[in-house]
Amino acid sequence: MTVSINNKRPLHLFEGFGVEMEYIIVDCDTLNVLPITDRVLEKVAGKVVNEISQNGTAWSNELVLHVIEIKTDGPAISMTGLGAAFHEQVKSIEEVLKEFNGRLMPGAIHPWMDPYSEIRLWPHEYNPIYEAYNRIFDCRGHGWANLQSTHLNLPFQGDLEFEKLHAVLRIILPLIPAMAASSPIADGEKKPFLDFRMEKYRVNSTRIPSITGKIVPEAVFSKAGYQEQIFEKMYRDIKPFDPDGILQDEWLNSRGAMSRWDRSAIEVRVIDIQEHPAADIAILEWIVNLAKTLAAETWCTLEDQKSWHEDDLYKILMDVVKDGEKAEISNREYISLFGMNKESITAGELCRSVYEQLKSEYDFSAESQSYLDLIFEEGPLARRILNSLPNTFNKRELYATYNRLSDCLRNGTQFTP
């Protein structure tokens, strides 16, 4: 299946969707990380490259050699068929990996990788950027060397559209881990966060806090304001560590919703990768349709959305990062943004209530509805991973769960306990 790409300019709100999915390359027998992304790309392209185009999608490298990314090769016209198109690319990569006794593993964190001893940075084009990150932040550890996610890019045109999109995404970010958390295990053990990837992401740039901020971006709603309050502060803070200006670009921004004026889009980065591409697309459909509803001011006004300080949204986000769909949200004003009058509600109940309202307005694909129903019945992937394991588990049991998870990716099937 070929992805239909929209190359017209400008793209306005919700006219296109850029999707990126990151997967771990592992050894077929041991499921240990296999740092051979460059060899996979070389096998297909005939030389080492950082990206190759494939039927409206692309394969590309990431910071470390054991991660490969599949993405739309430009903004897709719609999400219909994206899950199937990405799954075709998964199968194509796995065909190449057979020569190396490798396969792909989903999940936002490898469950037993030692990121301090096993990290290998991409050594080819763009290596100076990665080496600069490593020199300043030390890319060993889970926050850099061991994390995989799905990214959603949504377009805007001009300050008025940016204002709307940035406002709604700031409100949605705290709920996303309740739907998408898939990283409850690292270092071979259960972690105290259902979304351990986001906990490590939160602190990976603490040497220069202005790069990540509070994950939820500041209440800034114009290009000039963003440049002054976010970009210029980041560049100023990193300059003593980066005198050559290697990292002083928009992509240095690591907030959970990154505003990119070079592509007139906001990139959402709070989405753990799921067990197969159609599952990711289901969550992205939920996010996009919720964003459309909030942008239409169906439940609350734009001014209501803009009034929220990042500290208040950050508190809700971190509760959900820790407890996922079971996190209790007791901020009545936040709940009211979604058209509900309640003193408190769990994050999962809020997400489900929103979905029931969205279904009457938008057409979710049958496959997406099936996966969303699974989330609401059995929890996000992180919960299902934990429920597939005994309370106290060993490496053999962990291997069995993640081998089955990798089979789900290969076969395009749901993971259930």
List keywords for this structure.
417 residues; alpha+beta; Creatine Kinase, Chain A, domain 2; eight-stranded antiparallel β-sheet; globular
Q: Specify the number of helices.
A: 16
Q: What pattern of helices and strands is seen along the backbone?
A: EHEEEHEHHEHHEEHHEEHHHEHEHHHH
Fill in the CATH topology.
Answer: Creatine Kinase, Chain A, domain 2
Class inferred from helices and paired strands: alpha+beta
CATH secondary-structure class: Alpha Beta
Poorly predicted tracts of residues: none
How would you sum up the global shape? globular
How big a fraction of the residues is strand? 5-15%
What does the oligomeric state look like here? single chain
Mean pLDDT: 96
Ends apart, CA distance between termini: 31 Å
Strand tally is: 12
The CATH architecture assignment turns out to be 2-Layer Sandwich
Major sheet attributes: 8 strands, antiparallel
Helix content: 40-55%
What is the rounded Rg?
20 Å
